[in-house]
## 1
Amino acid sequence: MIEVKKLVKRFGLKTVLKGLDFSAQAGEFVALLGPNGAGKTTFLRILSSLSRPTLGSVRVAGYSLPDESAKVRARLGVVSHQPLLYPDLTAEENLQFYARMYGVVNRAARVAEILDMVGLEKRRRDLVGAFSRGMQQRLAIGRAVLHDPEAILFDEPYTGLDQDASEMLDGVLRSVAAQGRAVVMTSHDLVRAESLATRFDVLTRGAIVASALRDDFQNSNLMDFYKKALAA
Amino acid sequence: MDTINTDGYMIAGYVVTFASMGLYLLSLYLRKRNLQRDLETYQALNDEK
Amino acid sequence: MQSKPIALTVLDVLSVIGIGAATYFALVFAPTEAVMGNVQRVFYFHVGTAWVGMVGFVLAAVAGVVFLITKDLKWDRLEFAAVEVSAMFFFITIALGSIWARPAWNTWWTWDPRLTTAAVTELVYIAYFMLRAGIEDPEKRARFGAVYALLGGLSAPVTFMVIRLFRTIHPVVIGNQSAAAQGGFDMESGMLIAMFVAIGAFTILFVDLIWHRVRLAKLEATVEEIKLKNSI
Amino acid sequence: MKTSAPSLFSAALAIARKDLAAEFRSRELISAMLVFAMLVILIFNFALELDVGVRQSVTAGVLWTTFAFAGTLGLNRSMAVEKDRGCMDGLLLAPVDRSAIFFGKALSNLAFMLLVEAIVLPLYALLYNETRVFKLEFLGVLALGSIGYIAVGTLLSAMSAQTRTRDVLLPILLFPVAVPVLLASVKASGGIIAGLPFEEILVPLNLLIVYDVIFVAVSFMIFDFIVEE
């Protein structure tokens, strides 16, 4: 589903990604771990076509970036640490707007379905500006799956959420991931990542330095794996 | 028609012209010198490592 | 540090000789203008600097377009050099125009189309510098600079045509004498020669300065690169 | 679940519609522009002592200056809405050509500008008993001028929003390149108020159209370079 080979990204003279290789299949939930500044966000921005690769090949859902970026965007959902919602519009209007931008057929039904899925059916006529951070983030996930994408990217979805909201988000994330999509999530919260992901990749200094499947672990040595990967 | 005496304006004009070009050249020179100094400092730092 | 090419040294010498010759032709060779007297002698440098200022503006717009297509930062350096050098020359043009205007039209400034267009262009240059100063990433700075240089280059001719609608008292020095123009003069052959010598000399100086400025920009990039290497 | 990527036009309309809906609710942008426009006219009134004799020759200039200043206010605000909460990324993620975003933002900016003009113009007419501003030709010039101004302004506001100096930078970038559109509009609409024959306003009108065509096309084409990374 996602196929990245020898990806290099430079910002001016700074090289953020240095020959990164990565792949994710349909049905996989990959947690991308790594310290701040390792290039996780940059990597996701390239996958989502917001940023152009300097070198290397990137294919998402069978299309290559940046040449077929519009086709990639049609098959991709993205949740960033900002909700990408308009505070002066209601939950329903926000979804309506994005449904138009993605060309969703049968808009009203789909929007109602999504609102129900993220548990905001009752608040659909409320302004998003009045929502709590957790509600906004749930709606943001709803927004990202409006067009039933084949792959979903989450960039630190737990940023700024309290315990309750995080747990609620867990539920939504699981239901989104359970539909045969490829999911990539960046996080520095190992506990959260562990409970959700099927595979763990460690990204540091611009490359993936280690990768392990959930099944490889006996309980709770993810931390060791992570530390070892960083130290290597 | 008599020719007006405008020598002062002429001199002012040429002073402005050459002063501007001179200042620009000076700024090019100064910037270059500073950069070369920086370069030497950084290279020396690199060698120490 | 790259060593200085011989061609550049030759160009340096030629520039000095050229400007010296232009000064001689303007101050000694050309006949004194019958009505205006000696102040008319600033006219040769006025035309010379205006010419290279204009060429530089077009050059910057073209280099900007080439940069946007190729993404090669050397075009950005050429564009920036062209803008900086022309900004300096246009400043001289405007100052000389103003000095000429004082005895000729009895005012330091007139809203004449050519003078005003030069002033607006100078403002575009200043805006260009401010725009670049506000952007950290060199690649983005180059991109935005190129876009703005292009917009400025496109608007300048329209600005000139629009301001001409308002009024003019600028003498038309070549071609038909406009009835509205005051302070015009018939070009004697000695004056024409001095004018073309000045145009030639400033063109050589312009190329020379741009070359120096481009080299300076390269040096800046080198230092930037080493600084970055050190910080890692 | 079926989707079909929307056309450039319908995506642009969706963006404009979203902006108008949000503005209809908050009224932040329009009210700021309106209050500002009225203040500018008030200041002009005393600064220029707009008595009957002066008015004829300066009406076009006063109105255009007012609209230009109020316009930058709106342009800044409209782009800040996208930039502040990262919504621009949301737009960029949609499976549409990036030009659609430019087109959509330009449409809503134009709508705001025309709306402000539609309110300020009758007020000006009322205050100064100047009904000639309702001439059809005058309104046409107003629309043409606004189109060119907003096209360049939308492009440059997307640029200035990404710099360190942000709001401050927009007028500095915009005014020097918008000189032709402002002056041509002043010349044309001033001629209309003075009742000049059509041939006399034809030249500035043509220049206005030339500027509109060039800058709408160019802004449209190079917007991609402003938003890519």
## 2
Amino acid sequence: MSEIVQSEPFVMNIGPQHPSTHGVFRVKATVDGERVVDAEMVLGYLHRSMEKLAEERTYTQNIPFTDRTDYLSSMSNNLGYCLAVEKLAGIEVPPRGQAIRVIMAELQRLASHCMGAGAFANDTGAWQTPIMWFMREREKILDIFEMTSGARLTCNYMRIGGVAFDLPDDFEEHVRALIGPLRETIADGEGLLSGNEIFLARARNVAVIPQELAVNASLSGPMLRGSGVAWDIRKADPYCGYEQYDFDIPIGYQGDAYDRFIVRLEEMRQSLRIVEQALEALPGGPHSTEVPLALRPPAGEAYARIESPRGELGYYLVSDEGPSPYRFHIRPPSLINLSVLKEMTVGGSIADAIVALGSIDIVVGEIDR
Amino acid sequence: MPTLVTDHWYDFRDLSNLSRVILEGIDKVAPYELAYIVAPIIGFVAAFVIFVLPSQLFVGVYGERRIIGRMQARKGPNRVGPFGLLQPVADALKLLQKEALTPTAADKTLMWAAPVFFVAPAVLLFAVIPFGPRMVFADVPAGLIFFIAVSGLPVLAAFIAGWSSNNKYSLFGAMRIVAMSISYEVPLVLVLLCVVVFTNTMSLPGIVEFQVDSNLWLIFMQPLAFVVYFIAVSAELNRTPTDIAEAESEIVAGYLTEYSGMKWGLFYGMDIGYALAAAAFASTIFLGGWSMWGLEQWVPPWLLFIAKTHLFYFVFIWTRGTLPRLRIDQLMGFAWKFLLPLAVFNLFLVSLERLWWNESDLGGGIVFIIMAINIPASAIAVYLWARFLGYKPERIPTRPRLVREAGGYVPVEDPAAGGQ
Amino acid sequence: MDNAGVQIAFWVLSILTLVAAGGVMVSRNLLHAVLFLIVAFIGVAGFFVLLSAEFIAMAQIVIYVGAIAVLILFAIVLTPQSIRDNSETAMVGPAILLGVALTAVFLFVIHDTTWATDATDPGLSASDLGRALLSTWVLPFEIASVLLTAALVGAIMLVRSETEESEDVPDADA
Amino acid sequence: MTRWWTGEELAEAAERLVPGSVARSTATACILEAEHAHEALRALRDDPETNFAHLSNLCGVDQWDRFEVVYHLQSLERNQVACAKVEAFDREEPSVASVVDIWHGAWIQESETYDLFGIRFEGHPNLQRILLWDGYPGHPLRKDFLAMPGGLQPGLNEFAGTAAKPEPPVRPVT
Amino acid sequence: MLTLEHFLTVGVLLFCLGLVIALSKRNAIGVLMGIELMLNSVNLTLIAFSRFSTGPAEIAGHAFVAFVITVAAAEAAVALALAVAVYRSRQTVEVDQLDLLRS
């Protein structure tokens, strides 16, 4: 329509209240007709200054904070934080605890990608159908979380030195019952969207991020892999015994929104493989080591990162031998993946900008913290 | 046409008997003009009670939500009344109670007037639709062009709604709907012109009569016209995959962003009304109207017609529940580059065939020959034109590549590392 | 033409059309003026129906309301400064004088002449018009098509901007 | 497995690439001289042996007597991570060279660090507060935030019993 | 009883209103609207003459109206394109501001 509409550029707010910003996120898009000529993001609507709050609480008390950063993948956030504290304090986790952590982290990845892939489909205009299919499976995963930790969304399940409780008796049975239908749902979603002409027209060659830019802009997770960079911290820097499991890294072809979508779907399949293997080889023994409640790690600093569903989730902790961290920094993958928003949106139409935003799969709780 | 339908007033296979009996009764006791006034009222009430209202409430609102709910692995409305059947009523009551907000900077008069402008043509549209052999409310000789003319009016109402809201999303929606309707009106009118050329009449009962006489529906004689009509009309009606004027994920609700309460309810209800009217029009023109190869002798024809309309409407629901949405430049390009040439080609083909029909002495059986020509010709035309425009069905990978080890960059063009 | 319903329709349509035309004159908001104009167009279409010219009436609605009015709306939105301004120039006084004088002259002529009318025959059907256009009036018909093409090309060339001329690439691969 | 470089290793590499750029090194991190930091970081990115093409993390730390800006550098091809630090001693107007021209993705993290610590990044294209609004008093992640001019108090302002401002908690830093 | 005079009167009134609008409006789009009204009134007159006559004149009236509508569509398209083009270069569509030769 830009051929017809040649009006002056004007500012259009996408957000903070907009169906496609996945929370209270705002893009001040300057548009000329339908074409976006500038995009500036406005953050902070959900800022709670967790990094400051965490400096006043003990290491264990900080775990619930991490639930509330990326509220769609609380298990992964717990895990990243606990790994950082364990690295700082030199705590070993027993094998069963590690296996439980892997299962939980992968289930969380499945749940989060269900949401991410479905919401992306919604952004391209596939009106609610794919997201509802994926939500159905996500509910089952959340049921398992509830069964295990007592909470569905903010699980607060990981502890420094292991996990909070051992698995319930019928856990394995429930997870096994989940895997088959979830595989089918992934195949359904793929069948509905991946080869669909309209979906291809909307997502292919949209918001392309070349490899060099992807690396240079510190992207991570499916954003980086979609651009064809084989980088997965589970493979590159295995934690919690990921080296025992057999899985592949899916990578995209040219770094467009479509590649990121299919990478997410394939990651779900790989996660299912990991969950199956981890269930097979679930070791016995204690699920956690005893850690003093008022943990005082030795002075120093530690940076631990995991592959969260959205990318490289890092926790940088500085200790001064006190009971609470001297500095508590979260490396939020959603925020840093947003750093290429302008490159992705400028020059395209508004509809493309929405698709680009959806393909980042942002969680505003994590961006603003 | 041999017909089993009798003229008794109780023969519900043809409801026009009943209205005729009523009118004759009135004519005996009342002055001449009164029958003129009562006749449209009877037709209007009958059309609404039998078709429009039940369709709108129980197919448009309830059925659409139930069917889409089924497609989306959820239940849909199931609380109010048996099977949730009273949900539309509850929704209407809720909308009536809601406050209809008007923004301070809006053009208040126009914002109030837009829903009214939007509703009026929807009522007019059903006037020319033949529900049965003698059940047409207004047998306008140029019924087809009447339908085109009236169905162009709601676009203006939508534009007024979008402009008067004084909201950028609304304005975007308004501009989009106007651009879309201008683009898609052209192929739409062209394919309807094909129908007129072929059937030699512009009256809708005449077109149905043509299909009854030739024992073949126009969808088989002109498949290309049907496809173009379906795409164009779904674009005009803002149905997914072409609902860019109220694209939820992009411009919130398009021209309806600032509307609430019953003002929004009118737009929502009449959107369904227009979709039903388009479905009724399509079943009249392409699906044989009330005819069903003799079945109309036994089953009330109006029931057949309603069934066809709802079948067509179901296709709307189906696409809505399945397909993603196109971008506006893709949609406009599709209209001008793809649908318009195909419509022109179809017009050319159909005109030639009509000429041949007039010249030859093959009689009525020629329509089957034409069908045998047109179905492959349409497919070939679509394929060739797509190839001409440079569209090649390429094998696009639906699965990403898989690598075993992290680290390093995998080149973009790497045929060896296919993940299939 | 002597039916009571037709008479009522005539007077209603006259008032509607003329009031709407007056609305075009007096409304200060250009967008309101366009909406009045649309009402006037619809009123004229109603006259055509009264005069048994259904096809022309439908064409009037399709073209004037569906195309020309929409184009005007589009042009108004594309020229944002002009939306709120539909005022008159200093020529309004002479213009009204001229209008009134012309009306008087015309009305005198109309009512003074004895028209040889014959209102008995039914209206013209669309097929008659089509035959006439393609037989008697075939040359003007063809010229009109050329005119439409020329207008289309001219309109496109006029609104093409420099940026589009430079980047002459197809934007959508449909 | 990722090779996590010790501070000494990184110091060696940085010294080899840009002589005189290393201030000192600890077990985990290498502290770069502020004036050579930009050059050294660029060299660390471009050198094929270090190849730190990916800036994993950038954050600030308030050490009371100085601000540290911590860079976690990462090489995807060689699978190694190293930690570099740059210090800023001016408490009122701390300033560090921006690395946006080296790693594009740094801009958002530098903006955040500026927002929460008040460290200016020289050469940043658009250094603005991104999480808090313009005009917010102070920089909340500084250790003396509560004692800063116009500083805020924990809890509600009008909360009863908070009239006496408590001393900000000061912890000795090793 | 409706006669030809009734329709002609309406046509004249509509024509003169359109004329006044076209002559007095400041905005080019307003002028165009006046012209469209005038064309409409001419159409009305032609159809009225056609209705109240027989023979070739009847069909000529309809044909003329068809041509007038065509020309009006073409004219509107070109005029509005002109208005948009002028607006783009001079930021106004007011006819008394458009003194191209003077600037």
